[in-house]
Amino acid sequence: GRALAVPTDRGGLTSAFPLAGGSPGKMEEGKACSPDGVLAHLEMLEARAHEAAVKQEEVEQQEQKLARLKARVQELRVQRDELQAKVDLQEKGQLGKEGVVSNPVQPSARDVLEWKIKSIKATLQIFYLTGISGKLTKRGVCFCISTAYEGTYLDSYYLELLTKPEVRIHRHSVPIFIPLEQMAKNYLQTDIRSFLSVLSDHLNAYVGRRYQADQLQEHFSEQIEGTLQRNSLCNLLVFNYNVSKKSKSFPFNVRLLYGDLCCSLPTEVIVSCTPGSPTSLAETAAAHSDLFRRVALHKAFLSFSSAEEN
Q1: Smallest Cα–Cα separation from 266: which of 288, 250, 243?
Q2: What is the pLDDT of residues 65-92, one digit of tens each?
């Protein structure tokens, strides 16, 4: 017999019932453009926007709280200095009834005691607002130093001091790479307030540097080649990086040195191009070097991502 003809026009079988090896791309395109797909995408964008707004609000609240605490600390310091100056003049017998220098007048024991009580309360309040709290023990006093970076509270460290026969450190949880012995030698016997202040500065700077390195590895690992190299004190960081999450090459090498151990920003920055990188990137490396000096490490990489999106 004769071979059967298969209709191929628009109204034929082949157009009404597409064969199994047809065009999957068109089918997927139709699915992606379906109303359900668009709504799901919009819901995802709304959820991300809401999450970003909540995080921004939390950051702003923390910054406002920190600003209020700093202002209160400054007020207490002014009050302390005024009281100290007044008592110094009284002890020298040079403060008259109307605040004019006159004949020597010895302050009463009660006045001196009241001033000492006020001074101690002001000092404790300042310590508390700056993250230092303490309590008396049977043999001395135990201090807790709470650390934070950009409004985010991080670790707490403890220090127990013995007061007899002389002030000395009994035990502590301060990391071994913090120069605690040198601080104690310089301040502990003569000015415990300065000792605690310097120790707090060192600890806050250390956790700030560590926090930046952790944030970089957690949120920008795709832009870092391998593992970020850092020492225990986190005052030396070395790594290769790129500015695009899509790039598979790492044309920049950076070395950050934090010469001031009481600071969370580097004092020395060297950004260079890795061998084989285009010479045009030298100008970009210089701009990155300036940025690393001025802003936190993870915020610098955040600006790289923002520039890429724009």
Answers
A1: 288
A2: 777 777 777 777 777 777 777 777 766 6
